[in-house]
């Protein structure tokens, strides 16, 4: 799974830069053509979400967004089916070419 991090502009509800979006869409299409893309979706700003925490066992707390730590939030998700971490890194680097300012976390889905 590729987790595309957000930024202050996206968190403020501004649309992504059209040129970056076009380049990212081209990478998604490249993934589709290669048969590795399972899902690719953008996410709404955290102001539209909520966070569930457990300050004490059995006592959930729901906090409405927005959340303060923008650098930890995700703006989009790409789920890919690849044979190795190295292949996942190659695809993440393709996104980095499309938008060199957005960090991407690569995580393996359990199961």
TrEMBL record:
Ranges for domain YCII-related: 10-93
SUPFAM superfamilies tied to this protein: Dimeric alpha+beta barrel (SSF54909)
Cross-referenced InterPro entries: Dimeric_a/b-barrel, YCII
UniProt cross-references to Pfam families, sorted A to Z: YCII
Superkingdom of origin organism: Bacteria
Family membership noted in the UniProt record: Belongs to the YciI family.
Protein name, UniProt field: YCII-related domain-containing protein
Source organism of this protein record: Kribbella karoonensis
Lineage, top ranks: Bacteria, Bacillati, Actinomycetota, Actinomycetes, Propionibacteriales
